From TrEMBL:
Organism in which the protein naturally occurs: Cyprinus carpio (Common carp)
GBD/FH3 domain span: 22-458
Alphabetically ordered keywords of this record: Coiled coil
Gene Ontology molecular function terms on file: actin filament binding; small GTPase binding
Protein's name according to its UniProt entry: Formin-like 3
InterPro entries, A to Z: ARM-like, ARM-type_fold, FH2_Formin, FH2_Formin_sf, FH3_dom, FMNL_animal, GBD/FH3_dom, GTPase-bd
Ranges of compositional bias, category Pro residues: 521-536
Classification via Gene3D superfamilies: Formin, FH2 domain, Leucine-rich Repeat Variant
Any GO BP annotation: cell migration
Lineage: Eukaryota, Metazoa, Chordata, Craniata, Vertebrata
Coiled-coil stretches noted in the UniProt entry, renumbered to this chain: 380-407, 926-981
Amino acid sequence: MGNIESVDGQSEMKHHIMPLKVPMPDPTELEERFAIVLNSMNLPPDKARLLRQYDNEKKWDLICDQERFQVKNPPHTYIQKLRGYLDPRVTRKKFRRRVQESTKVLRELEISLRTNHIGWVREFLNDENRGLDILVEYLSFAQCAVMLDFEGLENGEDFSLDNAKSWSRSIEDLHQNGCNTLVRSARQSVLRAYPPSSKTIKNSRLVSQKDDVHVCIMCLRAIMNYQYGFNLVMSHAHAVNEIALSLNNKNPRTKALVLELLAAVCLVRGGHEIILSAFDNFKEVCKEKHRFEKLMEYFRSEDGNIDFMVACMQFINIVVHSVEDMNFRVHLQYEFTKLGLDDFLEKSKHTESDKLSVQIQAYLDNVFDVGGLLEDAETKNVALEKVEELEEHLSHVKEKLLDVENETMMKVADLEKQLLHKDKELTAIKETYESTSSQVHTLRRMIQEKDAAFQRHNNIKKQLLELEQQGTIRLRKQPDGDIAIEALGGGGLVGGAVAGVSLGDLGLLTASMSGSGAVASPPPPPPPPPPAPPLPSEGTESENSLENQLCIKCNVYSSVVAIRIKKPLKTKFRLPIFNWTALKPNQINGTVFNEIDDERVLEELDLEKFEELFKTKAQGPVVDLLCSKSKVPHKAVNKVQLLDANRSKNLAITLRKANKTSEEICKAIQMFDLKALPVDFVECLMRFLPTEAESKLLRQYERERRPLDQLAEEDRFMLLFSKIERLTQRMSIITFVGNFNDNVNMLTPQLNAIIAASASVKSSPKLKKILEIILAVGNYMNSSKRGSVYGFKLQSLDLLLDTKSTDRKMTLLHYIALVVKEKYPELAAFYNELHFVDKAAAVSLENVLLDVRELGKGMDLVRRECSLHDHTVLKGFLQTSDTQLDKLQKDAKTAEEAFSNVVLYFGESPKTTPPSVFFPVFVRFIKAYKEAVEENEQRKKQEEAMREKLLAQEAKQHDPKVQAQKKRQQQQEMIAELRRRQAKDHRPVYEGKDGTIEDIITGGPVVQNLNQLSGIFRVNILHYIYILVI
């Protein structure tokens, strides 16, 4: 853009300079006048924004400079002079005099186009002045002689008028379709406005010896720098073609300028196809065998002019490598390869010019090795076939794995059923053993008591005999049969103790002796009933007594099981609250929490590290817990219709599915013939059981003895249908029999899943240990505020993700995963012990049990029907299905018991916790645990990478090769950036806005974008292999 430059270099465009500065107006007027000046300058938004940041003093200076600026010549002045050069009526002598200042006029025009305000440029290009047409026409005139001289040299002929006339077709029309894209096939040759004559050729030869062509290109470049002018040039029928034909100029500077301008146009949206069309025209006009042939000829011949070679190489790079379509890109590459570009670049790649070396390297980096790509494509095809085979194999393996999983689940369920049966037997044996042991203990005690009494009896008897022999006492039998002991020394009956023998012992002795007398005493009264089973031994009594005392003190159990009171834990820092749902102490009896010791776990954990991670900053945040139309069949007019029209239509549709007559259908129903009637048809027919009103209408029609053939087909079927005995029961039986196997096959896997999952969850020692760790950590967090608990509800596992560390980067579940990895690595894969929980989570046990009961009712219905009527089909069904149903009912009972046991084992209620609630807790916990483990690993890797980076940075400070390492790192970062941009539109496309052409040519983005293309295509070259092959 030249507007900013005009501020500094405007002295050339002024008639005079005002010596005095006009006083600055008020700020409002200043801003208004400054806005007018900015609009007239037509600056890009970024440059206009820069000028708006000036202070008022600078703004006023700029306003004064612009207002003092006087346009040297209006547009029509230059246009009149150019038309004068083109006037064929001007004499040769007069033309020589005029053309002496043509270059100066063109230079002044170029400066005006570049520096004057946009209004002047628009006036130059408007329909009245048609400045663009004049410039293009003058450019064509200036190089007409060059083209003819060139043609003569090529053919070895002298110039003639015929040759001149052949050059009158040097410009093509460029047509655009609805999408503003050019269609090269629609090109048409257009005659020049002034067919060249001999005088015209001579005048053109005179102009060609000057710099007029070069300055004309600069004028067009200045016009194209404005969006308005660029659009005019692109839509002009001859402009771009004439610019391309200017490559035949002998001046290397002009050729370099043309190539720079064409390369810039190539990068503007829609410009690439216009440039290719211009070179198609160049080929026809210059009689090239191949497109770009002359360009390559100039490239090879001008090896002494580095600027031209750089511009030429840059243009080739842009034309070939700015194409999105890879096939087209290879085609363009092949065009230049045929012209010898590859060989020439091989010779020139060691040039001393850095600019040329960059352009050559960029092209070589982007070259497609088509042979290699074909090889890679074939390899890819083989790989794709192999992938397809592997995917098919994987599909078969998955199916096989599913079958094996179902078989395993069935085996596990059978083993669990056997285990439950053995547990029941073991419980009964234990009860029998305890009862028998109690009886044996009682009998042993009675025998011991009898032995002790017998021994005492013998001792007393022996003592009495000794006393009687000593003459101390005398034994005498009483009339009532008792034995009286008379003391010889005292003369009376002794009622007390004699010689240390107690009265009770004497009573026993006398009773025994009286029993041995001559006269039999009456039989003794029956012995008292055996005493109640004795209490446990003294040791047991004392233990129970102690336990009862503890229970009374604790007041936590109604049973005899004691519980240890947990002491409150003291923490160094305040910790957030883990809002779990705790179990009451009297709820843990018989659960998993009665078998774990969380206090022992706390002794093994690093609690200081735990507190450092989860301590609250101020007040701990409270964890939120709420987290197709059917046509009506045409009926004959004479048919009688008794059924409702809608119902009759639906019945007709259903009957057509069976493809049988009404008699055949009714006979099959009576015979329970499922081979004749599909089950789905019978189920559809269930919806058309005749109602009471319909039966009444049909019976009345029949009683009136009206002809049946007058009834519609549906009514006739309904009449036969309603005559079948126990129709509803028959239809229900047919449906039940037909669906029985499907129902059994559907329910059995669901029951097996419940049984197997319940067994695996309950019997998992690793899961028990995980819960122990969670209980320990939760008690440690809550102890100082809520106190320790003895267990928790399983739903609390979901809350582990809600409790976060101080830095909010870690949750309680992440910490537990770390603890498991560091302290208990054997628990890392605890979830491998929990089999089939995902399958069990999808089962509604209540609905399954209801379905099993319905199958039982259906089987009872079949049995009753079979007992009333001897049906061969039903008998065969009962023989084969009774066993299946019996097994299914046992499985249902086993599943219910197994699930009830596991739910109670974890402190839940079977009534409020169905499988669809219980098992998903474990599914979610396992998933969250795996994610936590993976995130911990990623965090660890990141920390290790950061540590290594810090160590590497420290080492680099003392490493003499630090510069080389930095360079290598920059290259890696550049590759990463190119890969990141790969997902976007890599082709550097610009919009034809103000300043675009100048920015592309002078700002260096052509080379920059080319290098970017080079990196992108190097990284992503294999992405398009398959496309190229196709």
